[in-house]
Design goal:
The protein is α/β, with parallel strands linked by helices. The chain folds into two domains: about 10-190 and about 230-255, Rossmann fold (3-Layer(aba) Sandwich); about 190-225. It is built from eight helices and nine strands. It has helices spanning about 20-30, 40-55, 70-85, 105-135, 155-175, 195-200, 210-220, 230-240, and strands at about 10-15, 35-40, 60-65, 90, 140-145, 180-185, 190, 230, 250-255. The strands form two sheets. A seven-stranded parallel beta sheet has the order 3-2-1-4-5-6-9, with helices on both faces. It has a two-stranded parallel sheet with strand order 7-8. Helix 2 (about 40-55) links the parallel strand 2 (about 35-40) and strand 3 (about 60-65). Helix 3 (about 70-85) packs parallel to helix 4 (about 105-135). The radius of gyration is 18 Å and the shape is globular. The protein binds NADPH dihydro-nicotinamide-adenine-dinucleotide phosphate. NADPH dihydro-nicotinamide-adenine-dinucleotide phosphate binds near residues 13, 66 and 187.
């Protein structure tokens, strides 16, 4: 199936690692122009240099931006408009989860988590809305978590914030229609830098990567028996962002290896 990204412009937040980077690579392979951001300038530059060598400088644009800094995101949107013009799709993917129970989450932790989850959506969506509308077929796809529908007590504030994001996206799918479609993917456990960091901090340093990840999948009772790969999540992002999903808005697609327990 041709996803129709040839010569289209797509913006990816959190594009220097994990799922975002996998999406950037797939989009470039599909012929898109891709603008992506992340906070860490060094890793961003290294990734960008690799991609430029592989796909050409005229199709790759990267900028060090913290998505929580509204004026920096506005500056990024201005650079993208100057360089590439209208934007067909925005993937709001930047972020991370917070592991903490109600008992060990302070008020400041709650505020920081709500700030991250909400403004990592609000700032880019506000900044790129005009460019998405002017493309005539704009699409937003948010990376979210199954925790929105299946909360976990050990990730209490992340779960709560993620449910709120699904509500926000549903409202936006109505307010921004018919100009911009708004959808999300909800993830189970996907192998990325986040899980690599937890593996690096494992209790038993003699445990191999395969053993640690295998034990994690068994502990979580993932029906498909393993964590997802970043590219498997990215493929779902691309589908929802593409003209192939032209009649889909206000929806979410679960990529979890069957982890959800609800019908
Ligand atoms: P990674 O840590 O591999 O990638 C996260 C990316 O986001 C990096 O490029 C990081 O770069 C960037 N980023 C983080 N915070 C900001 C910020 N404030 N501003 C700009 N860029 C930022 O993790 P994943 O690929 O797993 O994460 C992608 C998304 O998927 C996240 O929103 C995460 O919460 C979500 N998710 C992942 C799950 C999983 O199992 N992997 C499960 C559920 C949801 P830098 O640090 O340099 O800014």
């Amino acid at each position: 199936m041709d996803l129709g990204f040839q010569d289209r412009t797509v913006v990816v937040t959190g594009g220097s690692s994990g799922i975002g980077l996998a999406a950037v690579r797939l989009l470039l392979a599909e012929g898109a122009r891709v603008a992506f951001c992340a906070r860490g300038a060094e890793r961003l530059r290294a990734v960008s240099d690799d991609l430029t060598r592989e796909f050409g400088a005229d199709r790759v644009l990267s900028q060090a931006v913290d998505v929580l800094d509204a004026s920096a995101v506005d500056g990024f949107a201005a650079t993208v408009a100057d360089t590439f013009g209208p934007v067909q799709a925005l993937l709001t993917n930047a972020g991370q989860g917070r592991v903490s129970t109600f008992a060990d989450t302070s008020d400041d932790d709650w505020r920081a988590e709500l700030d991250l989850k909400y403004f990592s959506q609000i700032n880019p969506i506000r900044a790129f809305k005009p460019a998405l509308i002017s493309s005539g077929q704009g699409a937003i796809v948010a990376t979210n978590s199954l925790l929105a529908y299946q909360p976990e007590p050990h990730m209490v504030c992340t779960s709560s914030a993620r449910a709120g994001i699904q509500s926000l996206l549903k409202s936006l799918s109505v307010e921004l229609a018919p100009d911009i479609r708004v959808n999300s993917i909800v993830l189970g456990l996907v192998d990325s830098n986040q899980w690599q960091r937890r593996f690096d901090a494992r209790e038993d340093p003699s445990q191999t990567r395969d053993d640690w990840y295998g034990a994690l999948a068994r502990r979580k009772s993932i029906p498909l028996g393993r964590l997802g790969r970043a590219e498997e999540a990215a493929r779902a992002l691309l589908f929802l962002a593409s003209p192939a999903a032209s009649y889909i808005t206000g929806a979410h697609l679960e990529i979890s290896g069957g982890l959800s327990r609800h019908v």
